[in-house]
Predict the structure.
Amino acid sequence: MTMLATLKNGTGLTNGVDVPSQPQPLAGFGNLLRFMVRRDRVRAPIWVASIAGVIAASAASMVGLYDTPAKLVEYAELAQLDPALKAFAGPGHGLDDPTLGSVVMNEVLIYTFVIIALMCIFLMVRQTRGEEETDRAELVRAAPVGRLATLAAACVWVTVVNTVVAVALTVSLLAFGLTTMGTLAFGAACWGIGMVFIGVAATTAQIASSARAANATAGAVLGASFMLRAVGDLDNGWVTWLSPLGWAQSIKAFAGEQWWVLIPMVITSAALATAGVALSARRDLGAGLMKQRPGPAEGGPRLASPLALAFRLQRTALISWAVGLALLGFFFGLVADQAEQMLESEAIAEFFAAADVGSPTELFLATMVMMVALIATGYTVSTVLRLRSEEIAVRAEPVLAAPVGRRTWAIGHLAVSIVGSIVVMSVAGLSIGLGTAAQLGETGNVFPVLGASLSMVPALAVLAAATIAIIGWFPRWSQMAWLGVAVSAVAGLLAETLNLPQWIRNLSPFEHVPAYPAAPFELLPMVVLTLVAALVAAVGLFGIARRDIG
Amino acid sequence: MSIAISLEDVVKTFGSTRALDGLDLEIATGEVHGYLGPNGAGKSVTIRTLLGLLRQDSGEVRLLDADPWRDAVELHRRLAYVPGDVSLWPNLSGGEIIDYFARLRGDVDTARRDELIERFELDPRKKAGTYSKGNRQKVALVVALSSSAELLLLDEPTAGLDPLMETVFQEYIISMAAEGRTVMLSSHILAEVERLCDRVTIIRHGRAVQSGTLSDLRTTTRTSIEITTDRPAGGLESFSGVHALRIDGTSLHFEVDSSALDAVMNHLVPFGVRSLVSQPPTLEELFMRQYGDDLIAEETEPAP
């Protein structure tokens, strides 16, 4: 063995094959993989435990809620008529002859797919493009590490996490006594959707030149998959088959399993990962496939304050969120008329006549507004968190070394979050209203839905304020701000499924917003939420003003 | 003489690390002050405390007769800062960033900005994400040097610049010093410090270990002497201030403590001095003595 080879083995960075004339694109794979496990040793278990925990808790609660066949039939009848449920929960495979398994699937299936896809995207991008954005990837690649080793190790590592999630889900559902075949199909579909989005992220991480953009592009693919299958499910059409989420739900767990849908998922995953590898083998380190254009030689006169800079930095994000939610909202609006079908069921008609929840259409619209708001929490919180990433990247330092107060600096980003939330919710609300108007041929719902959307803003502001408070007082734990999003999502989407006690639901600011137009509008909750947001934000700003920066 | 910067017994801890451990520092108005120390000595922590980004645990910090923590915003109108590791927004062009900071400061001098961009050969249209380390550094330098700030806080400002650009930087500092502006220059480039600075402070482990003008510092250390005499000179071994003596016939090479210089020269003159080369200690030697405890211990022991 040559001395060089001994040295290499000493640093542990080769696979020990001493053939210097070959390119060795995977050299260093094992060490990179071990290092990824080390870096994700907290993050990955949190993902696995939260996903498996919420789903297991949902199953546990539903075992109690639907303990007689009559209750299952009652649920299935409503679910098959409710367009909101179809849009968010899928077509309801197996609800013709409901079992506990098919009812649980109808409640949690799509959400589980979405959260697993998000997990795979975030973990993949973090280990690939995220590293490349810093100088760390350069150091790694300067060691005897092959060109493809990082991407390959990331794919393998996230596949391991994805597999653990799928197994954990399967085991926990089996523990609640769901039938074996259906549970296995559910686990397999979860695994398959994770694999598809590992492939998606492996590709977007090569195309985009920043982790933010790579996450956003992969997230857009997920959003499109969601929309396509929702369109298909509501129209009972072929459109569902254009979506990986559509394939996954078509495994028909607990409803006559169609195992073959795993094939397109695995093929897509492999094809996308191969595409990622091919792109990665051709491009320069640090480069994306989108060319950098030169910018202006001078700054515009308006770029003169931290607020202006914050808007400039977040412009693309704001436009993307607004466009995405506008599309989603318009689609929701188009299908709103299906809500009236629910009255075909006598039981439901009686329910609507007795309960004070407005018409089915109004209830549907209120639900859709809530959905849009829950998605918009992603914009609201990530925008405020930019404050912390600016600090970590040492870009806050020169700004604060200029005559700029810390509060002014922080309020700039907070303002982008709040104003952006107003913009996003207005656009989304208007789109829901216009979609409804286009379908029903009347514009009566446009303003109520716009109003309902804007009434979500104080709740979004509470999350923004909570984020500022965490950044101000516990800067190292800033990512905990996502807990606010998680609590709101669980309380908003799974409160009934989980049979959550009211005090937990009350932790979500959205719980306090009246479900206008299904419920009468109330001003007081808006005022209270706004005051809470202002107070919490003030506490956060005080924290930022008194702590060390950096 | 008014004082621009003063730190008295300043302590700053991060967990169990004492980054500043009773630091004393005084910089007079109009002075160019070199701030030296090994990596991790606490140089950047000092500057970030002066900027009000960090708050000291104890001790007194005054900057331009104000409290850098409480009066940060007002003070920042009067100073400019160049960090050692400049991080910029990758999507903005260099020109946009330069103008942004100028507008934040509220003093935009377009002519001087354009002049600096030209002198530093910076392409302001390029996105900051494509800049090299040196070019990012230039962006921060253009911002600071085009300002009318009365105080410049420079934390290794030329790290990453090529020698040509370093010269441009030095020219600007010399002319700004001539205008009476105060400069605090933390640097590892000793030739630069030697050329620009009136006074120097060396810190180690968060404490100032030496402070003064360069000639003050030189008196605390040794001069190296190379001398040829008519007759072989003897007896130098008995001087305690003489080190590293090497005798080569009538030529002598040795280092002598500044305090013993006078006595040694008097001893040698009777032997008939034919040629004499004397070298004052370079800043590098001063520096090495202060930095490398262990190194010095090794070197001083075996005087042959």
